[in-house]
Amino acid sequence: MGGMTGMAGIAEGGATATTVPAFPSPGHAEPTHGIGASLTPADAEAKTQGIYPYAADLWAEGLLWAALLRSPHPHARILSIDTTEAARMPGVRAVVTHADVPGDAAHGRKVADRPVFASGIVRHHGEPIAAVAADHPDTARLAAAAIAVEYEVLEPVTDPEQAFSAEPLHPDGNLIRHIPLRFGDPEVVGEVIVEGLYRIGRQDPAPIGAEAGLAVPRPDGGVEIYTSSTDPHADRDLAAACFGLAPERVKIVVTGVPGAMGDREDPGMQLPLGLLALRTGHPVKLVATREESFLGHPHRHPTLLRYRHHADADGKLVKVEAQILLDAGAYADSSSDALAAAVAFACGPYVVPHAFVEGWAVRTNNPPSGHVRGEGAMQVCAAYEGQMDKLAARLGLDPAELRLRNVMATGDLLPTGQTVTCPAPVAELLRAVRDYPLPALPADDTEEEWVLPGGPDGAGEPGAVRRGVGYGLGMVHMLGAEGADEVSTATVKVSAGVATVICAAVETGQGFSTLARQIVQEVLGLDEVYIAPVDTDQPPSGPGAHSRHTWVSGGAVERAARMVRTQLLQPLAAQFGMSAELLTITDGKITSYDGVLSTTVAEALEGKELWATAQCRPHPTEPLDESGQGDAFVGIAFCAVRAVVDVDVELGSVRVVEMAVAQDVGRVLNPKQARARIEAGITQGVGAALTENLRTASGMIRRPDFTGYALPTSLDTPDVHIVKLVEERDVVAPFGAKAISAVPVVTSPAAVAAAVRAATGRPVNRLPIRPQAAVAASG
């Protein structure tokens, strides 16, 4: 395991052990509704037929079209902006710049440091300068191009290490946050020491649908914005502050979200859209091009990591020292949160008695960074797993065995001093993927087509291909961290035998709307459950990140449903002189413990309208202190991945053959959905490992399209085997469920890098892996 294997003469791998199936076997039928059922999403048919409405499909009477003028420079001083020519073009209704913003000129989710329109200084390539509304989209684009901007081009700061000594790029300075983590004795030294330098590239969320929106002015002087927001109430508050309006006069209506890997929406698009609608008194629509999408929304933080691992002669970790530098790009966004995760998880799911980590997030003139699935945790996972492979090689140990000697379990401490109180079956996960049978190798004399690295028509030769096996262990936190107030509100109404769920948790593809239906089915025994559309007239439910809607919004739906259940059962129980707790609802029937009472839910509901509203708020967390210590996280999820790759060691091309996954899920709520989320996460991780890197030159994005930015296709997607799902329920989470989709994204790039390392003998310390890094070491 973990070594380099030549193709010749080997028919199959040597592992023979099996593990518990990840999903119910044919002899154990799934339920057809409620928790544990593979319920089909209600919008699946409309989406497959192409009739599901997204923001790009919307229309309104008197519609105008918007276009943005964006900066062609990553760093420049704006000397003048002349909109005269644009404003006088036929069909142009309005041109707005920074001078036309009536309220707050800057916005931001954590720090209000990002201007609606650049005024004075441009800080990144593609920053909005002005916006135009016109009768036709071509007219709007031509008018935006006609705006004359005089720039004094400045030297961009693109190396995050230079940000410490460079002139301030922003009034708030270049340093966004510094976390010095101190845990244990700094004087301890291990018998064996390995060091490494690692670089992680800029991954883009690359949503299948580019950003779009429609803003409609209201008679009261307010505005409604229809867009694919994942945090509508935060967007409403940002917009209201920008427009100089009270929040109740701005309404965000969530349209279909065409793909989201975090906070996918770009407020830099929504805010100009609303300003144009207010200025013109007409509905205004904007559909971003793919280039604008790449230029506007945040990306994964490019990261530089330096590590030193200390261990004893048996491979037990003694101390970890690390320096982590996150490139935030021009503005802060969620960089503080990403840095906290990176520093807290810098040692991985391993027991480390002494840890000393320095973490920084800095501003540069690079494209903005922000929330992308597993931010912070993904970058450090690639680095600490590279260190574990180096340590195993130095000690002559099998990479899986070295990891097993160090994995954490429930009751161990994070380097932040927080005790891991949730289930942490890391050793069980690793053994499951280690013992899963390896895929067969093609025999020497086979006449079957063999997919070489580089594709069926690859230029390589079979004799140059080596197979490698590598491991990755990863972890992510669930919900917000460091004192974030995680709360969600839901209402459940029942009328005429149909339940309606009102909750502002946005369905981003993570399956929340399906889960909400399952929860109500489980609690109330009703099959017909309708999920109301989301807008900001509803109470807030927070952003769709860190699996928080499964936990917080799902918990609110459950509590509201249980309150309705009590309203339904109490009158029946009172008739028979018993407690409502002695009644059960199963398959639409209400029965008592003794069988005296037996009726259907439909009969009990006849003529009644019941409703209840409830909140869910997990236990509080606290910020990390000046030494990086504190109980910052509500819960943690773990994952183990074994990657098998074929590498052409002459050309440096890589093919991922198989990914075996074992995951700590708490409880499987929807088996089909769980499988899809894990497979999608693995695919995104493979992209980060091999192809996805939004490249820049002197701060300029190179080829911001899907020819320059290579997403994995079906030909790049490996076989994904979910070999084990550990359902050890987290007692503080609703239903005991944990995060599913983020942790495979975090773990799989590290596993792929480890497998390429094993095949080539090269260090592989950069993601995505470049061909020159996958050419076998000489000798």
From TrEMBL:
Domain Aldehyde oxidase/xanthine dehydrogenase a/b hammerhead spans what residues? Answer: 49-155
Listed SMART domains: Ald_Xan_dh_C (SM01008)
InterPro entries associated with the record: Ald_Oxase/Xan_DH_a/b, Ald_Oxase/Xan_DH_a/b_sf, Ald_Oxase/xanthine_DH-like, AldOxase/xan_DH_MoCoBD1, AldOxase/xan_DH_MoCoBD2, AldOxase/xan_DH_Mopterin-bd_sf
The residue range of the signal peptide is none
- Which top-level group of life is the source organism from? Bacteria
Q: What is this protein called?
A: Oxidoreductase
What species was this sequence derived from?
Streptomyces hiroshimensis
Q: What is the lineage of its organism?
A: Bacteria, Bacillati, Actinomycetota, Actinomycetes, Kitasatosporales
